[in-house]
Design brief:
Chain lengths: ~110, ~525
């Protein structure tokens, strides 16, 4: 049973050099070509937003840009879909509370 | 293959979606001499089935996560050799009739999540809609907890980002497992997370097999239907041997990894405070009503769940294309033998015409490419050629199998019994089952649209993609005659900033005169 296999081993990945991003100030390692959501999952982080009404934690759900559950604040800009946005060196992802901004209606 | 558009060029054909169907359609049409633009939201072609890591991830064996990878590499080679203009990172939000006769304007926003600065318009004489599908979800208590992810979503994250859900840190207080640490060394998932796969449909087996191969522990695949539905159609099965081979391959992989398949069962509760810690799996009766007292708890780090796929039709319904109901109750495009919709000049292939898988999508894409080239070249429909006849036969055979599949996995009416009133049905607007039932029983809402107006269910960012199926079922449960469901209408296929809309003088939304359109525009930008 190939139990200790990882996805990277399975596809024989030889990635370009890793880099760092931060999540709520804490450094995490990213691989080039991964989405922000993938980087967060790889670090064991499943939630990076709280909901507007209940303040409940949320992260990626549909994985393909449809559900908007994965909204994150990236480099100060709220409402970015983490499953679509590729990670770039030095990106600062912060937990998005509610709308992610004071006013409704623009981003 | 040119890679960027010049200013407002005009093409013979605009293909929307670079999955199996769109790729096959685009290269076929281009090889027959048409100028073709191929638009897709993703940075690379492939769609859902052939989703693969970005080049920087350096996958030397991408085929390890795919069946039939050579079909894709073949299409990719033909694309590279063709004159097709690939417009990657283009999110099409509407298609409208151009003011110049016989032309269509395809409007897109650019960037990884459509956040780019540049609105784009592509004008073409014909449009092929190959926008694929999204997952049907049915809510259950705890389904909004982090660690509950779409089954196809888990597959997509694995195929593109080489990650698994639910590995890494253990919930506070729980015992850390070997291999379950925060990964600081490398940023792809480590082995060891326990992922239950649940819902209904053939995709579950594929997802479980991939997750297990990639190192996840999959304690169970939980399928709400039985597999007897297939056995009632031996002839259809016999002529679709490739599907049986595919299922057998998944089955073998699951056996090898010690994955248990539980049919006629569902996850009826997710446990955990801030993330998944366990699930309860209950037996279902034939209508998908949970059998009282049958619940068993399975400890896990994540749940990958989905109840089949639903075609993505907003661009088509915005154009007024006719739909029909499939065996599982979903709306699919009504197409003629040449893959043309009811709106002349608008064609469709793949999941938009009904869920059927990647091979069917390839066949339909090629058929559409042949037919569009014939039409624009002023030639009669190609139905007479040997190639078109062979493709048509393959399509019909695979469509028959798809119907059997849709019927075998159609959601049973009893699923709503596993909801409690506190379960959020609409994830975006946090509308509970209790509030929806109140709208139905106390305020007489009889369809999803009325429920939406009363409760905001389906009015959030995802425009009802995640809760639409569930809300429609709950509305139909009320007293009296239920209204027949209509295809969901979304004025915008993707969210668009107000500036982009304002810059356009004529949009589908204003032309359609849909009173919901203006409300949705504002939502499209701010939520
Ligand atoms: C999340 C998910 C995962 C899946 N995984 C598998 C799997 O592992 N195995 C399997 O057998 N089947 C899988 N499927 C089923 C899959 O739908 C088919 O097998 C196959 O991909 C269908 O091909 P297609 O060309 O019709 O659509 P797709 O492959 O879905 O291609 C559609 C393309 O259109 C693009 N698109 C959609 N809307 C727009 C727009 N408005 N603007 C621009 N581009 C747009 C999408 O980005 C996508 O690339 C999955 C489906 C989903 C939804
Ligand atoms: S996970 Fe659904 S939009 Fe990102």
């Amino acid at each position: 049973m190939a139990r200790d296999r990882s996805p990277a081993e399975l596809v024989g990945a030889v990635p370009d050099a890793t880099f760092e991003i931060t999540f709520d100030g804490r450094p995490i390692v990213a691989l080039p070509g991964q989405s922000l959501a993938a980087v967060l999952w790889a670090a064991g982080i499943l939630a990076w937003r709280t909901t507007r009404v209940g303040g409940r934690p949320r992260g990626a759900f549909c994985g393909i840009g449809h559900c908007f559950d994965c909204l994150a604040t990236v480099n100060g800009e709220p409402n970015r879909r983490a499953c679509l946005v590729p990670a770039r060196p030095g990106d600062a992802v912060t937990t998005q509370e509610g709308h992610g901004h004071a006013e409704l209606g623009d981003r | 293959m040119p890679n960027s558009a010049t200013d407002d060029p005009e093409y013979d054909l605009a293909v929307i979606g670079a999955g199996a169907a769109g790729l096959a359609g685009a290269v076929t049409a281009a090889e027959l001499g048409l100028s073709v633009a191929l638009l897709d939201t993703s940075a690379q072609p492939g769609g859902q089935f052939y989703r693969h890591p970005a080049p920087a991830l350096g996958a030397t064996r991408p085929e390890a996560l795919h069946h039939d990878w050579s079909t894709f590499t073949g299409l990719r080679r033909r694309l590279a050799d063709s004159s097709v203009t690939l417009l990657a990172g283009h999110h099409v939000w509407t298609v409208v009739r151009a003011e110049t006769g016989g032309r269509w304007d395809v409007h897109a926003v650019t960037g990884a999540d459509g956040d780019g600065e540049r609105p784009v318009r592509v004008r073409a004489r014909a449009v092929l809609l190959a926008t694929g599908a999204y997952e049907r979800q049915l809510p259950f208590p705890g389904w909004t907890l982090p660690g509950v992810v779409g089954a196809g979503g888990a597959q997509a994250m694995l195929k593109s980002g080489l990650v698994l859900p639910g590995n890494g840190v253990s919930p506070a207080g729980a015992k850390p497992r070997a291999g379950g640490r925060v990964s600081s060394a490398g940023a792809t998932s480590r082995a060891g997370g326990r992922v239950v796969v649940a819902g209904s449909g053939p995709l579950l087996l594929a997802v479980a097999a991939s997750l297990a191969k990639a190192g996840a522990r999959v304690p169970a695949v939980v399928e709400a239907s039985g597999y007897l539905g297939y056995a009632r159609h031996p002839r259809t099965l016999a002529v679709n041997a490739h599907k049986m081979v595919e299922a057998a391959m998944h089955g073998t992989a699951l056996l090898r990894h010690g994955v248990r398949l539980r049919t006629r069962s569902a996850v009826t509760q997710v446990h955990g405070s801030d993330r998944v810690e366990a699930v309860t799996v209950s037996r279902l009766d034939r209508d998908w009503r949970p059998v009282r007292g049958s619940g068993r708890r399975i400890v896990c780090d994540a749940l990958a769940v989905g109840f089949g796929l639903v075609p993505q039709l907003e661009l088509a319904t915005g154009l007024g294309c006719t739909t029909r109901r499939a065996q599982d109750g979903s709306h699919v495009l009504d197409l003629d033998a040449q893959q043309e919709t009811s709106v002349p000049g608008i064609w469709a292939a793949g999941e938009t015409g009904g869920i059927g898988g990647a091979q069917l999508a390839c066949v339909e894409g090629e058929l559409a490419g042949l037919a569009i080239a014939a039409r624009l070249g002023g030639r009669p429909a190609p139905a007479g050629s040997a190639r078109a006849r062979a493709l048509g036969r393959r399509r019909d055979r695979m469509r028959a199998f798809a119907s059997v599949m849709a019927a075998a996995h159609a959601p049973g009416a009893g699923w709503s019994r596993w909801l409690d009133d506190a379960t959020d049905v609409c994830r975006c607007e946090e509308v509970s089952a209790g509030r929806i039932r109140e709208a139905v029983t106390d305020f007489g809402a009889r369809d999803a649209r009325t429920v939406k107006l009363l409760t905001r269910a389906g009015m959030g960012w995802c425009q009802g993609r995640m809760c639409g199926a569930a809300v429609a079922c709950l509305a139909a449960e009320g007293p009296g005659e239920a209204l027949p469901p209509s295809p969901e209408r979304r004025p915008l296929a993707v969210p668009v900033r107000l500036e982009v809309l304002a810059a356009l003088t004529e949009t589908a939304a204003s032309e359609s005169g849909d009173p919901e359109a203006s409300a949705a525009r504002e939502e499209g930008t701010g939520g």
